[in-house]
Structure formats: C-alpha cells, structure tokens
Amino acid sequence: MTPANAGRPGDLDDLDDLDDLLRGRRVALVHDWLTGMRGGEKVLESICRLLPSAELVTLVHVKGAVSETIEQRPIRTSLIQRLPRAARLYRQYLPLFPAAVEFLDFDDVDVIVSTSHCAAKAVIGRSRAVHLCYCHTPMRYVWDQFDAYFGPERVGAAGSAAARRVAAWLARWDRETSTRVSRFVANSHHVAGRIARYYNRAATVIPPPVDTSFFTPATGQRGEDAIDGSFLVVSALVPYKRVDLAIGAAAIAGVRLTIVGTGPDQARLRAMAGAGVEFLGALSGQDLRDAYRLARALVLPGEEDFGIAPIESLACGRPVIALGRGGACETIEHGVTGLLVADATAEGFAQAMRDIAEITFDAAALRMQALRFSTERFEGSFRDVLAETLMTATAW
Questions:
Q1: What percent of the chain has pLDDT over 70?
Q2: Domains, the chain, ordered by start
Q3: Residue 235, class by beta-carbon neighbours within 10 Å (0-12 exposed, 13-18 middle, 19+ buried)?
C-alpha cells in the first residue's frame, strides 16, 4: 500500500543542491499556531530541520508548547497573540484570522513554506516570492466539518445560523486565497482530492513523517504478548475526531479504553465516559510509546486527513481500528494491519473491538507498513519537491 508520490517525486539527479538554490534568499516558514505538538507540528519540525535558518511566523505561540527544534528559532506572531487570553481562546478569534494573516509582512521574503490547515496558506508574499504550501486540509471548519464544530446541537440553533454566515464568508476567502500558493503538497490522496474540489488546484502527495526509529515494538514482543487488553485513543479532543464514538463503543463492548490527548471537547467527553475509560492527558516520549505497546489496538473513530497516530501504533506493532474513510484507507489494510469500520457508529466500532480480539496480527508486518512513512522518507521527498519547485518557478 505504498502511496503514490510518497517517495522521491521524480528523477531529480540533475537538480542543484537545495542549499545552493536557497543561498542569498530569505526564507520564511508559516504555521497556523504553535500551541502543542500534534501531527502538524511534527511536519513543521521536519521542515525546520531542512530549513534551519528560516524565520518562523505564526498566529499564536505558547512558549514551551512545541519541541526544542521549533522553539529555538526566531518566531514572529500576529496580532492575535496580543488579544485577551489568546493562548487558550485563539480558536474563538477565527473570524479575525484573515485580517491577522494578511497583516503579516513578507515584503522581503523570497521563499515561503507554509504548513496549513486553517489560514497559514493565505499569507501575502511579494510578487516574485515562491510559496510552497504543505496542506493538511482546506479549512475544515467552513467546509465539510462545519456541523462538527458549529452544528445546532453544539452551539444552539441561533448560534449555528450565525456561524454559518461567517463560515460562508470564510469559505469564499479560503478559496480565493488559494491562488497565493505557487504549489500545493497534500498529506494524502484524500486531502489532494479536497484541494482539487475546493481550490481547483492539483497537489503532490507526500505523507507526513513518523519517527519509526523511536516508535518500535517492545523488546521481545511477539503477537499478543506484552499488552494489557485495553483499547487506546491518541487524539486532540476536538469534535471532528469523534472520540465520543470510541467511548460509546467501549461501553457497548464492555472493554477498557485509554484516551491520550487534550482539547476543548475534554469536559464533554469526560461527562459521558464510564468507569472503564481513563483520560491520561497529554503524553510524550516513552510514556506515549508505552501506551501504544500496551494497547490491544488503537482506535481511530473520526475521518482523518491522514492520521499519524495509526502509523505510530503500527510502528509499535499494534493494529488499528479505523473508520473506513479518508486517510485511513491509504494506510490501514483491512484484516492485515487492522480493521476498517464502514459506518461511524458506536455499534460498528464495538463490533470491531470484539472482532479484533479473535485476530492474530504479525507485529513485523505492521511495522513494515509503518516504515513506508518514516521521517527520512518524508524529509527526502519534501526536499526534492521544494528544490524542484524553486528550479521550475517562473518567478525566478
């Protein structure tokens, strides 16, 4: 199941070294916000290693919330940073993001590399600048995930109606500003399809990096050894991740569930969780790796753009139960590396939890699938695409 374009994008042997192409040019990285180390920040971390002298620009930065690789470089923030309680309430300022992004100054920047799932791709560069955007997804809040965030059951009928008017305006802005990007890179074919649908733009597919040298099976692990029988969710606790389905499924199946992650949906999820559900908050490093190694299986109940957690789980030799939509269809093979659930229902996931207990998975095969998405592979592919983009850009 090797994704197309996952490796090197073509025969680039004749390309000059990327360092030579960038010599004498000012480079800026743009990221939506720096408030925690999630999948998007792991992509940014790899790009920071490729572009060690680039300035980093973001809407909001919570100091100490991201890795040292990211924190150690100059970071410039937007006007959102100066608004009340921006570190916690930045999402509430969504209608201000267009103005905040467009007010950022890139007049002396030659190369812009953005990693965007919201507004970062909309920065305004000078006419000769080359802008390569690694797009995690078009702005999900205003396209196909609107109801998950602003549906009547979440914000009330009046609030939803008001939000829909704002979302319509933001969707137009999101589409129109896609022309500011010289070239799009998508994290999956699923997202490339969304870029084509909403922006009418083509995208090269490079799956995001996974640290497969760190996420490894437990020493001596074979088959079902070294697990504690509980199921695991590793996710930001936000509506579209549908962690509520995993909680409901665990109750139906009568199994234990461990949830790793934080987010604005945490209070609601805790309120609905039974005694068999444990919330561990944010984990990193060895604690997260141990959680994967001990789990019966990782559960991915929402439709993901790509999904880094499933690859980390496979790298640790543990299978995945995932909704059979979106990026998971590109990384999980039903019956081989996990189970794909057809419908987004608690009952469907509960049945998969029962079924997976009857299947013996080959930990080595799971890990082989994960190695297709290694950090080294990502960095090599992204470096080549950036070099190719600089070589072929008409701006030069």
A1: 93
A2: 18-209+374-392 (3.40.50.2000), 231-372 (3.40.50.2000)
A3: buried
